């Protein structure tokens, strides 16, 4: 018995492009790290550990 | 027209078109996340319009609207739209438990710091440690067991109550209009206009931290999910642009706190344009098969 043909749609060409495959995780991780640093700074400001003018 | 006046006008126009498109999409397709995003964008637009108006004349109501819509609420409501979109999925729910766990720990220990005379370093250590305990407890006891609708409703009620409280505090503040200078940006001088030690200023970072985590985190999570499944690259790139734009807004408010309020308008315009471009890219009409795969993956926009 043969398996029925897969109904899965073919992958878009861009999703298989090497540059896309390599660049997206780098950008996502970088943005995630920047967000984390910003949030830690904001937490520090909230607690008064990181000073800023006017507080 | 000076740059100080032109930049917020440009941001406001971009946001106006963006908000209209989001509301139109909501009217055609439904989806509470679009409605909540529209509300957040309207607040963002109010912030930009009032900024532009303040370069012409002083008006206390306009200042209060700028502070409420532009500085306190917009990021949180935009982020709430993403919470609606991604609720019910394991990773966003864990992230939500993390936010609520750390918020509860922060409220408890910041509240106890003054009466018990605890030093800031110890408060940070106590929050870091107890935040994990509260997160695990919240996730296992409630968030994991609740239906997505119940969870988002509770969060929206909390956000709406917090927004009403912030609005009340903002509109009952006595303002120091004598220090207002129309040649300077509002963000460069609002500290002198607000009374020293105003309670509402303590609310601002809480709303913005929630908004940044949910909006940026949600967009990055969606991009990651779709990239891993190798589907809808336009939505992957759209979500990356949305995350970058939202991060630009977060940077803008950090610049204000560091006393560099003049750069706020540039960062705001960049944020508005990037998020709008991301939304347009992410909502390019997809083929039916791919659309269904996307809906199953729970992607953003």
Describe this structure in words.
The complex is a heterodimer of chains A (55) and B (301). Chain A has helices at 13-16, 18-47. By secondary structure, chain A is an all-alpha fold. The mean pLDDT of chain A is 77. By secondary structure, chain B is an all-alpha fold. In chain B, α1 (3-29) packs parallel to α10 (264-282), α3 packs antiparallel against α6 (148-171) and α9 (233-257) runs antiparallel to α10. In chain B, 81% of the residues lie in helices and 0% in strands. Classes of the chains: A mainly alpha (55), B mainly alpha (301). Chain A binds chain B through residues 9, 11-12, 14-16, 20, 24-25, 27-28, 31-32, 34-35, 38-39, 41-49, 52-55, and chain B through 106, 110, 120-121, 123-124, 127, 191, 205-206, 208-209, 212-213, 216-217, 220, 223-224, 227, 230-234, 236, 240, 243-244, 247, 250-251, 254, 257-259, 287, 289-290, 293.
Topology:
The complex is a heterodimer of chains A (55) and B (301).
Chain A: H1 13-16, H2 18-47
Chain B: H1 3-29, H2 32-54, H3 60-86, H4 90-116, H5 120-143, H6 148-171, H7 186-193, H8 200-229, H9 233-257, H10 264-282, H11 288-297
């Amino acid at each position: 018995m043969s398996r029925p043909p897969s109904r899965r749609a073919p992958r878009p060409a861009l999703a298989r492009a090497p540059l896309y495959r390599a660049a997206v995780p780098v950008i996502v991780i970088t943005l995630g790290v920047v967000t984390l640093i910003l949030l830690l700074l904001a937490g520090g400001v909230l607690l008064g550990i990181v000073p800023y003018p006017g507080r | 027209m000076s740059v100080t006046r032109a930049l917020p006008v440009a941001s406001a126009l971009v946001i106006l078109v963006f908000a209209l498109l989001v509301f139109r999409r909501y009217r055609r397709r439904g989806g509470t996340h679009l409605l909540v995003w529209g509300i957040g964008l309207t607040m963002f637009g109010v912030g930009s319009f009032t900024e532009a108006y303040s370069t012409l004349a002083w008006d206390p109501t306009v200042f209060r609207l700028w502070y409420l819509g532009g500085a306190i609420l917009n990021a949180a409501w935009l982020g709430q739209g993403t919470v609606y979109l991604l609720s019910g999925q394991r990773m966003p729910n864990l992230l939500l438990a993390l936010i609520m766990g750390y918020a509860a720990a922060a409220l408890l220990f910041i509240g106890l710091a003054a009466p018990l005379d605890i030093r800031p370093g110890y408060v940070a250590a106590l929050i870091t440690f107890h935040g994990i305990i509260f997160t695990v407890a919240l996730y296992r006891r409630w968030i994991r067991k609740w239906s997505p609708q119940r969870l988002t409703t509770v969060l929206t009620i909390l956000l709406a109550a917090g927004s009403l409280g912030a609005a009340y505090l903002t509109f009952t503040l006595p303002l120091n209009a004598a220090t207002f200078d129309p040649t300077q940006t509002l963000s460069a001088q609002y500290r002198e206009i607000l009374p020293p030690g105003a309670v509402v200023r303590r609310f601002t970072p809480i709303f913005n931290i929630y908004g940044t985590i949910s909006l940026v985190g949600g967009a990055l999570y969606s991009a990651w999910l779709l990239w891993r499944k190798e589907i809808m690259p336009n939505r992957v790139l759209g979500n990356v642009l949305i995350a970058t734009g939202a991060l630009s807004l977060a940077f803008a408010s950090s610049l204000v706190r560091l006393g560099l309020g003049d750069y706020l308008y540039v960062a705001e315009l960049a944020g508005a344009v990037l998020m709008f471009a991301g939304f347009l890219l992410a909502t390019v009409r997809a083929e039916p098969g791919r659309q269904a795969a996307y809906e199953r993956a729970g992607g953003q926009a």
